[in-house]
Design a protein that fits this description.
261 residues, mainly alpha
Length: 261
């Protein structure tokens, strides 16, 4: 009887709680990247891999939340503008954190800016594919999709973040189809890692599947504290600055991930 009452009292996770889980996982992952760098040689200790797998929770939670924000925002233009402004600030914090030049493409095409760049373009692409907001020919949608994928390719999680957001939005309300679509695009990302960068870390990327039980318990509520949105906007760049200071203290001013100097 007590167990039944406990189950009834658990109303699932709200958006604020999911974002908090994502923040914790992100911090674990980023600190691990600095303390045990991925370049030039990735360390295969099981506990380091476990830390990065835990970190895979962050990206899919935020992809889901961007899609949620799209459905609940009163002004899509302001929502997209806020994400792009956030991306501009986060660019410098992200690159400082991991030892990547502020000016893009000095060290290649990977990890040249933060995933927030893709979040903003993800909103744009959701509008493009939304028949209620943008009635344009299919061929033009295809051209715009490829263009946005090219624009976001150099960011963290590359264009995969944009595609994941769009597919999560397309299957809005159907978690199973959302997860399957997300895993299909992440599999492409994993394949690139496997054949071009690092085989072990390629399988780590598939760890995004751990988001499923969390999203299955999402109750669709934002949460009582309205300040979580702004807390995340502040926490993301600030924690990256601290991660960058830790990087310099431990290793000096060197890059610690693919794309670093």
């Amino acid at each position: 009887m007590q167990e039944l009452e406990n189950q009834k009292s658990f109303a699932g996770f709200n958006g604020n709680q999911l974002k908090l889980f994502a923040i914790i996982a992100m911090t674990i992952d980023h600190v691990a990247c600095v303390l045990w760098p991925q370049v030039p040689n990735y360390r295969y200790d099981w506990w380091i891999i476990l830390l990065h797998i835990i970190g895979r929770l962050t990206a899919p939670v935020m992809w889901f939340m961007v899609a949620e924000g799209y459905h609940h925002t009163r002004n899509v233009k302001k929502y997209a503008a806020r994400l792009f402004a956030f991306a501009m600030v986060s660019h410098f914090a992200y690159n400082f954190a991991f030892g990547i030049p502020f000016i893009p493409f000095k060290t290649g095409f990977f990890n040249q800016t933060s995933v927030m760049w893709s979040f903003g373009w993800g909103v744009v692409l959701m509008v493009v594919h939304d028949k209620n907001r943008c009635n344009i020919p299919v061929w033009l949608k295809t051209v715009i999709t490829f263009a946005i994928c090219a624009i976001t390719f150099p960011s963290d999680w590359s264009c995969i973040a944009v595609l994941a957001i769009v597919y999560i939005n397309r299957f809005y309300g159907n978690l199973k189809r959302q997860i399957i679509a997300m895993m299909c695009v992440v599999l492409m990302y994993s394949a690139v890692w496997f054949f071009c960068i690092d085989g072990v870390y390629a399988f780590v990327q598939l760890g995004v599947i751990i988001v499923w039980p969390f999203m299955a318990r999402y109750n669709g509520q934002r949460g009582k504290w309205k300040g979580m949105k702004w807390f995340f906007y502040l926490y993301y760049p600030l924690h990256l600055v601290l991660v960058g200071l830790l990087r310099i203290a431990v290793h000096g001013n060197v890059g610690v991930i693919i794309g670093g100097q």
